[in-house]
Amino acid sequence: FKQKTAYEIYQCDWSSDVCSSDLNGQDGSYLAEYLLTLGYEVHGMVRRNSMSENQDSRVIHIADKITTHYGDLLDESSIDRILQEVMPDEIYNIGAQSHVRISFDMPQFTVKTNALGVLNMLESYRRICPKANFYQASSSEMFGNSVDEDGFQRETTPMHPVSPYGCSKMFGYSIVKNYRNSYKLHASNGILFNHESPRRGSNFVTNKVVKTAVQIHLGLAEKLELGNLDTYRDWGHSKDYVRAMHLIINHPEADDFVVSTMGTHSVREMTKYVFKRLGMNYEDYVIQNKIFMRPEELQYLKGDSTKARTILGWKPIYTFEEMLDEMIDYWLNVFKK
Predict the structure, then answer these.
(1) Active site annotation includes 165
(2) Could you confirm whether 141 is annotated as catalytic?
(3) Count of H-run helices and E-run strands, the chain
(4) Which of 63, 271, 289, 299 could link 225 by a cystine bridge, Cβ 3.0 to 4.6 Å?
(5) Is 125 a catalytic residue?
(6) Which is catalytic among the residues 78, 141, 241, 273?
(7) Active-site residue (options: 165, 173, 179, 300)
């Protein structure tokens, strides 16, 4: 048995034998844990943060089992240095400016990180370790409001993104396909629909709703401010989706796969469930605030992951309700301590 090395990039997360970007992010931390259970040597790239506690807070419990390297997707020299040192078998690029609403406030940074950052990764990968397998975290936001007649978005659905984030991810998706075809690299895209967990940043709508609802339940807050309550998303659990990443990168042929639950729920439905679970009526506490609205709204996402389920044998384990229950229990435990 050859121990594989993974490199994760978290806005930047890397592993040797596995390298990954965004190691300290939601996906990066779960991916690192999962790869360790499979016997990988895991390396992750992290950006320096003036608050050192924020650099490894989600992976502190496995800090002695992984190796982290300082770097940045926009600093080609750091990517080169890490790849030359690690020489990974698998590279997971899951680093990004990933908040869609904030991408309207910071469009240039978003595009530089999510588009040029992917190109920087591909160039270093092509020159230094072209025999490695490469995974790019692509996004359902690339579809925009384009939906097939049966109500699903799939690998063949036209892409018409409606945010700087979606546009930047579409470039990353396209350049991965270009490098795959031009240089015969094993470079694949996972087109992941929304996925959440207790480790999701609390400025994202799911964890914002859960965290604030728990605070209201415990008398620590009075109101919850949200944007559009009637947008629909296909929400799954990050733990399920990192399993899909590993299956995609290890598929014999590089390819692109939609990863989704094949169901959709509105922000209103999600909010109603969370408050009801805590014995409250969401209508008594939720206020709509235009500041949280997008200039151009993405109304509906529902992914068809038939290809991944058929070819890779992947399917989600968590239900929508189980995912939210886990998040609710997490915040109850946090605030009751």
Answers:
(1) yes
(2) yes
(3) 11, 14
(4) 289
(5) no
(6) 141
(7) 165
pLDDT tens-digit profile, the chain (337 residues):
346 777 665 543 333 345 444 556 789 899 999 999 999 999 998 887 655 555 455 667 877 789 999 999 999 999 999 999 999 999 999 988 888 888 999 999 999 999 999 999 999 999 999 999 999 999 999 999 999 999 999 999 999 999 999 999 999 999 999 999 999 999 999 999 999 999 988 889 999 999 999 999 999 999 999 999 999 999 999 999 999 999 999 999 999 999 999 999 999 999 999 999 999 999 999 999 988 888 788 999 999 999 999 999 999 999 999 999 999 999 999 998 6
The amino acid occupying position 86 is: V
Pair of tokens at residue 71: 């770097």
Q: Which of 139, 140, 188, 197 is catalytic?
A: 139
Phi, psi angles (nearest 5°) of residue 253: -115, 135
Alpha carbon dihedral 33, 242, 109, 291, in 10-degree steps, equals -110
Q: Which of 114, 117, 168 is nearest to 144 (CA)?
A: 168
3-class DSSP assignment, residue 8: strand
**How far is the C-alpha of 4 from the C-alpha of 250, rounded, in Å?**
11
DSSP structure class, residue 110: H
